[in-house]
Structures are given as C-alpha cells and as structure tokens.
From TrEMBL, chains A, B:
Enzyme Commission number(s): 4.2.1.108
Origin species: Isoptericola halotolerans
Keyword terms: Lyase
Record pathway: Amine and polyamine biosynthesis; ectoine biosynthesis; L-ectoine from L-aspartate 4-semialdehyde: step 3/3
Enzyme type, top EC level: lyase
CDD domains reported for this sequence: cupin_EctC (cd06978)
Protein name (database record): L-ectoine synthase
InterPro entries: Ectoine_synth, RmlC-like_jellyroll, RmlC_Cupin_sf
Lineage: superkingdom: Bacteria
Function: Catalyzes the circularization of gamma-N-acetyl-alpha,gamma-diaminobutyric acid (ADABA) to ectoine (1,4,5,6-tetrahydro-2-methyl-4-pyrimidine carboxylic acid), which is an excellent osmoprotectant.
Organism placement in taxonomy: Bacteria, Bacillati, Actinomycetota, Actinomycetes, Micrococcales
Catalytic reactions of this protein: (2S)-4-acetamido-2-aminobutanoate = L-ectoine + H2O
UniProt family annotation: Belongs to the ectoine synthase family.
Length: 137, 137
C-alpha cells in the first residue's frame, strides 16, 4: 500500500507547471500498476490544445466549470463537477475553463514523468523499463 | 471521445449501492481502455473491510475525512481531501470514514460491473471478452 498527499508532491519534480495548467503526478509508471493518476488545475480564462496520440486519458472534474471541444466533430461539451471525459480515440481537443477547474486524470499507458509536449502538443510514448513486467497486473 | 456525467449514471445499473457505500461506475471494462473509473461515496461512521485479490486500485479523496488501516502492518493513515491510497499489493484493509467521504477510484484490470464481493470481500476477476483486444492500448 502506498499513501500519498498532494502536499507531499507540491514543488517536487512531480509537480509540473505550465502557463495554462499545473499537474501533480501522484502515481506514475514507476509504480508499475498500469496507469498514472494526476491531480490537475486548469486556469480560468485559458484555452489549451491537447492531443495524446499515444495515450488514453480519462478526466473527472471535481470543481470548476468550462467546456471541451472535440476538434474532429466541432462538438462542445459542458464541463462541471461530476463530468468525466474519456479520450479513447487520440482525440484532438480544446479545453476552455471559465473558472479554475480541478480534475483527476488517469493515463494508460502510465506517464513516466519524463514526457514533454512536442511541437504538436503530443506526449511521446516513454516507457519505464523496470515497471514493464508488472504493468499489467 | 466519451463525455458522461454522474447524473446520467444515478439509479442505473452502474450505480451500485451497499449499506456502507455507493459507487457510480463511469468507465468500465467495456470501454476497452485498460482501467475503470468510479465515483464512490463512503458513509460517515461506517467501517468496511476490502480486499481486491485480483485488482489494483487507486483511491483519491476529494472530500471528507477518515482513516484507512493496512491490516498487514496495523498502520493507520489519515484520509482527507488530496490523499491518494494505492492498493498495489492486494492489500487487505479497513476504511473508517468519520464524515461522508467522496473519492475517485481507478481499477486495473477494469471492473466489468458484473463482479460481486464474495464471502471474503474479494472481487473475482471477470473479463469483458469484446474489450480484451483493446484493453492494453
């Protein structure tokens, strides 16, 4: 059993900050459980393009409001507490928080913490060699 | 892209109720993304034994307070908003919410929704045949 708090992660290398968002990675690939879990803050009034070509991501909103646009269809969905969006098809999307949004994000394959968004906004696939044998427990 | 709200799940078969807790399963094995995501309410003043012999589970607390006891070691950890516990070793544990707790739970392998706790409190391993080919995207 591993027990961690956001306070322990704050301002460590697992606390990743950008202009539009801040993501605290609580569980990463090195834990070897087949997914990673992040607590993410999206800043009010921002607009972000995301595209995870190599990862599935589920995002559950715990506070705040805004919208997500599916760039393949132009469809816009409301985001509010209790909404989950699942990017199960490498969906290119825009997120526009009207207020600050807090959310819990799950990635498969798990993020290692070494990924950076490339010029297309894509996370490259980086694997954690030591964890791979137990990644599909 | 799939977008779902807790309101859509309320009182459907994906809204599983017991004496001590209620779990709304938002993403299940049939989505084929390699994990399931549940929003769970643990009732104040209850005490529950859990043991997932066949699943890894991560639980992130979004509201409420209580404690978790690791039955292998007797160690007790505080639960409050921003705490995550990861059951990465089929950990037998007791959860004791002092107040109502809301949490987001992630399971690997994903729960199908057809599991029931057996006499030992264990979820049996049930697979979703149609999803299996894409379960490790």
């Amino acid at each position: 059993m591993i027990v961690r708090t956001l306070d322990e992660i704050t301002d460590t290398e697992a606390d990743v900050k950008s202009e539009n968002w801040r993501s605290k990675r609580i569980i990463l690939a090195k834990e070897g459980v087949g997914f990673s879990v992040h607590e993410t803050t999206l800043y009010a009034g921002t607009e972000s393009f995301f595209w995870y070509a190599n990862h599935v991501e589920a995002v559950f909103i715990t506070s705040g409001e805004g919208e997500i646009e599916d760039l393949a269809t132009g469809e816009v969905h409301e985001l509010k507490p209790g909404t989950l969006y699942l990017l199960n098809d490498a969906d290119k999307h825009m997120v526009r928080p009207r207020t600050e949004i807090k959310c819990v994000c799950v990635f498969n394959p798990p993020v290692t913490g070494r990924e950076v968004h490339d010029e297309n906004g894509v996370y490259p696939l980086v694997t954690e060699p030591e964890a791979e044998t137990t990644a599909t427990v």
